Amino acid sequence: MQTNDSIATEYNPNSFKNKVVVSILNPQSPVPNISSILAHKPDSIIFLEIASPYERVNNNLSKNYEKIQYWAENNLETLYGFSRGLDLKYSPKHHSIAVNISKLCVDDINIDNARIVERAKEGLNSNGDSELIFDLSSGRKEDVASIVRLSKQIDCSLWYTNANTGENVEVGGERGSFHSEKLDVVSKLWLEGFPVVEVNLELKSKNINQFLLEKILDTITSLLSDFDLSDYKKRKEIGELARLGLKQQLAEKNLELEEITISPQNRILENPYDIIRISNSNTNDTGYIDLPGNIFSGDGKWLEQIAALAMIDGWRATNVYQGVAICDANEKERMNDFQGKISHKRNLNILSKIWAVLFYEDLITDNRFMDLTKILHEEKLKREFCSWIVRNFNSFPAEFQRQLLPICQIRDMDVLAETEDYNIFIECGLVDRRNSKSAQIDSLSSLVAQRMLSREIVVHSLIDKAAIRTDRFGYVCSIKDLRKMADLVNLEINVVEDLIDSDRSNFSNITNDDKEIEIDNEEIQKLCLQAIEEGWIYPRFGDEFKKKFGITQKEFFRVSKTSKGGAMQSLRKDSRFPIYYEENNSPPKLR
Amino acid sequence: MDLESLPDSQGKTLMLSVGTSRANILKACRLEGIKKIHLILTEDLFPKSPEGEKQLQLLFKALNYNLEGEAGEQLEYTFDWIKGPESSMKDCRDSILENLDNTKISAPDIIFVTGSTLLIQATIVSLFPDAKLVSLRRDDFIDLSDNSLISKSKPIDINEYTSLHGMKFEGNQILLNGKKIGPKFSQVKMVRGIPEITWIKSYDNKQKQDKKEHQKIGSAIKKITNHCGITTFRFKAFGYGYQALNSMSRDIVTRTPTVQDFTNLDINESDQISEINVIHENRFRCIIRLSGLAGIFYGSKTDLEAVSYLVVSGELDRKGRMILLIDEEE
User: Fold this and answer.
1) A33 and A153 share a domain?
2) Which of A177, A322, A323, A419 could share a disulfide with A308, CB 3.0–4.6 Å?
3) Are B218 and A497 inside 8 Å of each other by CB?
């Protein structure tokens, strides 16, 4: 039995020439098994495939074993049907481990223990210059417990590898421990069956000048305190003012600003865009930080980039990815998604661009598709052209395939940050739509990272709103609070009530002081008319509004904005009812 | 075999480590022949905070209820604290080795290995090499030394099960720690000792559909699994199509109905379906809505016009759609 007298030791995982690892094949995910390989770098690894009475579990075991084999050959992309040599930028990270992988099918560890021991010994050198390790980081708890007992029959050590952190500890024995390389988040996504086909922006903390970053983020958050970007009616105007303010304040801090127009790398999906490159003009430091040229604009994309920078500043993230697109691992499903999207009437511009590239690069081999106008106007021909593209997809030049792949995306992540211990999923929105955004980000991490250690954060631009903690690992906060990791993790849990939001989005009834008020479009219309006529629309009236109409002004806006036909929308277009603030020409709010 | 047949059958101590999933604790408490239970609690799951206090109260409330209610006599329980894996694996392991050292506690007779994390289980098992290992497979207590059945666990009431996890079902609504989560579910029932929550998309045309309902279900599942562990509840979501594929973990949520799911909605073999609501059709088949689930009729809509009802075949196609047939006699 282990006693307190044992002295913890730092273990050197590279100290033996021949290393054999035995581990239970994991049915849910190949990540723990691959983490064991990365940790021990064994010469050979034997996976125990424990038969399950459930077909689904056995299928998962086979699939995971296959994934591990392809990963070991640095070739996971081809397992998912991506062309060989496609050279995707965000493919699983390549490694240089040469490991002999095999499996041993067993019905039960206790019954088959002699076979397990025999097989493990086969891999060991006869001269004793070998090490046998049982890695206990995967499989059922009862199987792991049985392995611990089985290990008494053989000279070996027991180890546990934490796939999230790369921390390895010896179970019993000499209390050894060491840190090993861990799988990066992009590789994990691939192994979980979610190939990453596009990343808009990748930030590495080691390349970022922390001093410059802090200065820039301080300036941005201070500007957000001065302007109210939540006022969507004045967002454009306020955005312009804020952008000017940012440039002025950065210049006052002796930072150099350069506005650059970037040509798109992806000819199909992107247009040229502007960036503001900021560097330190007073020092010899050559580092710079890019901000989106359209910062403070109404589309909110800029908020994602600022949130990405804030993760490096406040959460010590090592790698941050903004705009991550994932697609289906199944080639058939992926291509179905692709065909559905390019043939959709909403995406005629994309189809036109694809045609243009194919035409000018002389890749169209079927004469029926030489006339774009005909394709766009004849539904049948359009469908045939789309299906021709799908059939010939793998024969297109690699660069062109890479540009087309983001079209297949099934979900995207606004920001994905990787820290030493866990991953952080962030969903951004200029206004605080915490309920729907929380559902969005939770469902995403539930899909791709159910077994990863992760945090989920909804970020908005309303810096006056207090941050809340929605569950053990979930938060809703402003971009300003996002930088204060310690404050966020110390918040008490305050669960978001999804249902209330869900009911309100139906607009059939609204709960107010425990009394259900039935509101139909006609009533909303009436309320809108009354509110506008009486000048109740702008500015915020707080309790007064509630007293008058029975619902809060915020609820009123939400209802009127999204009700069928958009009651507010139609009223706004109606010249009889000019919006109150426009009439009075109120200036943008500058606090 | 049962525990009484093991040597020294009097006053057996069962050691069990408490993880996010708590239902197995209730079951383990009811294992016959146990006199004392030694709980291992982690500081991660039971922190020194109001939230941790609440969790602890829930646990002890359930334990007290069980120890008095089932065994007929008062069982004794003790507990020890260890650092959980969230601090670091090394700290977690070392705190087990230090806090559970045999100079501080007496070795357990039995270790219940279904619960907590792999590292904690492995370390405890290695620390007490003479203890019997007992596992729970569904409702069966298994002696791992020879895979023999010790006994069957007694059924747990669904309310007791959920309250131990800080959950409650109220009017088809899930409440987690008193707060509503997710959209209303269609049904919940105890299946093989585990509550199964099913959401079926409503197609009531009178009510505007919540386009993001699938995401809210995914979010609720995430909250539940974060709170109670992955295997504590089973989840089903039907009728959400590809949206469910992109919002819920494929391993955790069942999206293809079985015959039993139709039976739960009172759709049984040989039933006659007279309200034929075709939602999609082509020359070869019609998809028909059946109380939120789908049926399939292999024929055109014109064929359907000639009949007044369809008969439930009791068989499903590979997508979980109930095959509907024309009654030849009609």
Assistant:
1) yes
2) A322
3) no
B115: nearest CA in chain A? A141
Q: Which of A148, A438, A447 sits opposite B246 (nearest CB)?
A: A447
Query: What are the structure tokens assigned to B150, written together?
Result: 């010790």
Residue of chain A minimizing CA distance to B251: A28
> Which of A147, A499, A511 has the highest number of chain B CBs within 10 A, making it the mutation to test binding with B?
A499
Number of domains present in the structure of chain A: 4
| A170 plus A52 within the same structural domain | yes
pLDDT averaged per 10 residues in sequence order, chain B, 330 residues: 45 87 80 85 86 79 61 72 91 93 86 92 95 90 90 83 88 89 91 90 64 88 88 91 83 91 92 90 90 91 89 93 87
Range of the domain at A222: 198-326+410-489
Q: Does A283 fall in a domain?
A: yes
Chain B residues with beta carbon closer than 8 angstroms to that of A443: 214-219, 222, 247-248
Phi/psi-derived region of residue A273, left when phi > 0, alpha when psi is between -120 and 50, beta in every other case: beta
User: Confidence band (pLDDT; 50, 70, 90) for A519?
Assistant: very low
Interface mutation vs chain B, best among A446, A520, A563, most B CBs within 10 Å: A446
Conformational region of residue B253, where left means phi above 0, alpha means psi within -120 to 50, and beta covers everything else: beta
The answer to whether residues A274 and A345 belong to one domain is no
The pLDDT assigned to B283 comes to: 85
From CA A173, how far away is CA A134, in angstroms rounded?
12
Return the residue matching tokens 């949206």. Answer: B243
Which amino acid, residue A49? E
DSSP B177-244: TTEEESSPPSEEEEETTEEEEEEE----TTS---TTHHHHHHHHHHHHHHHH-SSSSEEEEES-HHHH
**CB–CB contact A8 B94 (8 Å):** yes
ipTM computed for the complex: 0.87
Q: Report yes or no on A494 lying in a domain.
A: no
Distance from CA of B50 to the nearest CA of A (A): 9
One-character DSSP codes across A278-294: EEETTSS---EEEEETT
CB contact under 8 A, B219 and A165: no
Q: What is the pLDDT of residues A523-536, one digit of tens each?
A: 555 665 566 556 55
CATH domain B262-325 topology:
OB fold (Dihydrolipoamide Acetyltransferase, E2P) (2.40.50)
Q: Does residue B301 contact residue B323 with C-beta atoms inside 8 Å?
A: no
CB contact under 8 A, B123 and A440: no
Residue A511 has a pLDDT of 27
Binary contact (A2, B85; C-beta < 8 A): no
Q: How many whole angstroms separate alpha carbon A381 and alpha carbon A367?
A: 12
Residues A159 and A37 in one domain: yes
Give the integer Cα–Cα distance in Å for A440 and A448: 13
Q: Does the residue A129 lie in any domain? A: yes
Residue A498 lies in a domain: no
Does A65 share its domain with A103?
A: yes
Q: Which sequence spans correspond to the domains of chain B? A: 3-154, 159-255, 262-325
The answer to whether B113 contacts chain A (CB < 8 Å) is yes
Shared domain check, A347 and A293: no
CATH 3.40.640.10 fits B3-154, yes or no: no
The reply to whether residue A471 touches residue B227, judged by beta carbons under 8 angstroms, is yes
Q: Is B265 on the interface with A (CB under 8 A)?
A: no
pLDDT of residue A590: 27
What pLDDT, on the 0 to 100 scale, is given for residue B108?
93
Query: Running DSSP on this structure, what letter comes out for residue A468?
Result: E
> Which whole number is the average pLDDT over A198-222?
91
Stretch A493-518: mean pLDDT: 34
- Asked if the Cβ–Cβ distance from B94 to A451 is below 8 Å, we say no
Q: Are residues A380 and A307 in the same domain?
A: no
A227 and A317 fall within a common domain: yes
Number of H helices, E strands in chain A: 23, 20
